[in-house]
UniProtKB/TrEMBL annotation:
<comment type="pathway">
    <text>Quinol/quinone metabolism; menaquinone biosynthesis.</text>
</comment>
<feature type="binding site">
    <location>
        <position position="67"/>
    </location>
    <ligand>
        <name>S-adenosyl-L-methionine</name>
    </ligand>
</feature>
<keyword id="KW-0408">Iron</keyword>
<keyword id="KW-0808">Transferase</keyword>
<protein>
    <recommendedName>
        <fullName>Aminodeoxyfutalosine synthase</fullName>
        <ecNumber>2.5.1.120</ecNumber>
    </recommendedName>
</protein>
<feature type="binding site">
    <location>
        <position position="173"/>
    </location>
    <ligand>
        <name>S-adenosyl-L-methionine</name>
    </ligand>
</feature>
<keyword id="KW-0411">Iron-sulfur</keyword>
<keyword id="KW-0474">Menaquinone biosynthesis</keyword>
<dbReference type="GO" id="GO:0005506">
    <property type="term" value="F:iron ion binding"/>
</dbReference>
<dbReference type="GO" id="GO:0044689">
    <property type="term" value="F:7,8-didemethyl-8-hydroxy-5-deazariboflavin synthase activity"/>
</dbReference>
<keyword id="KW-0949">S-adenosyl-L-methionine</keyword>
<feature type="domain" description="Radical SAM core">
    <location>
        <begin position="47"/>
        <end position="287"/>
    </location>
</feature>
<dbReference type="GO" id="GO:0051539">
    <property type="term" value="F:4 iron, 4 sulfur cluster binding"/>
</dbReference>
<keyword id="KW-0004">4Fe-4S</keyword>
<dbReference type="InterPro" id="IPR058240">
    <property type="entry name" value="rSAM_sf"/>
</dbReference>
<feature type="binding site">
    <location>
        <position position="65"/>
    </location>
    <ligand>
        <name>[4Fe-4S] cluster</name>
    </ligand>
</feature>
<dbReference type="InterPro" id="IPR013785">
    <property type="entry name" value="Aldolase_TIM"/>
</dbReference>
């Protein structure tokens, strides 16, 4: 039985990431056909999106990640830090523009206190109780724990109490610690990232999971990353009382401008699409694969819907992190444009909420 067949029968648990990386040796059409069949079985021609707004309170960061172009540094000498009132103003404007989700992710600003974060969340939920609040990556949770010494479990419990509805998937990067020590030394460890999400799921909450690829990592590192996520999802599902888990897996394509990695070889379109297809094949217990248009570009994200992906993310309205590194995503997309692109590609556009309840079909 070949590797692909074993993967499809979920019979690959005895295979190492190195062995499973041979999935990349299949031609693009074979992987695409298999992944598309899996996504079609679940979702037909549906492509999901949401009406959301990204707010990034600050780019002043205590950590120094070599891949990051967003945080204030020699390559980005424009530090800023928003006040709670400024964030609330943006939140109100986003809601008036149709946003149903606020996605709040920040740099690790040493000037923001523990109390500041939770006052922010309470004020947002007080002002806009109907808006889904997605906030704090596991890297931020770990940082807040470090500055407060309260323990990550207390941080997560306080997030629930303050009204945070779900967590984004950022900070995962690549779980292999040798890679992490080079690209983001000092940031949350892979073990702690997984522990944070597992505890959050145990509180009955949903989150996403990302993977930053296309830099110094190898194919087997990507496979290892996916398998660790699958294992956490499986462990979570064993406890019947838990309602939390991973909503979606989001392969984030590394953006090469304005950072300190100096990567010369960028992944080909085929390498990108194979990665998405393999994710759909291996991650049978994570329902959604998101082709995040802000890193892939709109055209590639649309094509990825034929290779196992079934989600595009959303309107975003304003995107600061990926665009700082060269992505063409600064101004977001209008809802009409997103729907038009999905429909023109032969799919059915489904507007969703943040946990994938279907709101409208186009």
């Amino acid at each position: 039985m070949d590797i692909l067949q074993k993967a499809l029968e979920y019979n690959e648990s005895s295979l190492s990431p190195q062995e499973l990386s041979k999935l990349y040796e299949y031609d693009i059409f074979t992987l695409g056909k298999v992944a598309n069949k899996l996504r079609t079985k679940r979702y037909g021609k549906k492509v999901f999106f949401n009406n959301n707004r990204h707010i990034n309170p600050s780019n002043i960061c205590a950590d120094v990640c070599k891949f990051c172009a967003f945080s204030a540094s020699r390559k980005n000498p424009n530090p800023y830090a928003m006040s709670i009132d400024e964030i609330l103003t943006q939140a109100h404007k986003a809601y008036e523009n149709g946003a149903k989700e606020l996605h709040i992710v920040s740099a690790h600003n040493p000037n923001y206190t523990y109390e500041w974060y939770f006052e922010l969340f309470r004020e947002i939920k007080k002002a806009l109780p109907q808006v889904h609040l997605k906030a704090l990556t596991a890297a931020e949770v770990d940082y807040i724990d470090r500055i407060s010494n309260k323990g990550y479990k207390k941080v997560l419990e306080d997030m629930v109490e303050a009204g945070v509805d779900s967590m984004p998937g950022g900070g995962a990067e690549i779980f292999d610690e040798s890679v992490r020590s080079y690209i983001c030394k000092g940031k949350v460890s892979s073990k702690r990232w997984l522990e944070i999400h597992a505890y959050w799921h145990g509180l009955g909450k949903m989150s996403n999971a990302t993977m930053l690829f296309g830099h110094i990592e190898k194919r087997e590192h990507r496979i290892d990353h996916m398998l660790r996520l699958r294992e956490i999802q499986s462990e979570d599902s064993k406890v019947a009382s838990k309602n939390g888990g991973f909503n979606a897996f989001i392969p984030l394509l590394y953006q090469k401008e304005n950072n300190f990695l100096n990567i010369k070889d960028f992944p080909s379109g085929q390498e990108i699409l194979k990665t998405i297809a393999i994710a759909r094949i291996l991650l049978h217990n994570i329902p959604h694969i998101k082709a995040y248009w802000a890193t892939l570009g709109l055209n590639m994200a649309i094509v990825a819907q034929e290779f196992g992906a079934n989600d595009m993310d959303g309107t975003i309205q304003l995107e600061s992190i990926q665009s700082a590194a060269g992505a063409k995503s600064k101004g977001g997309l209008s809802k009409d444009e997103l729907i038009s692109q999905i429909k023109d590609a032969g799919f059915v556009a489904i507007e969703r909420d943040s946990i994938y309840n279907e709101l409208a079909e186009y």
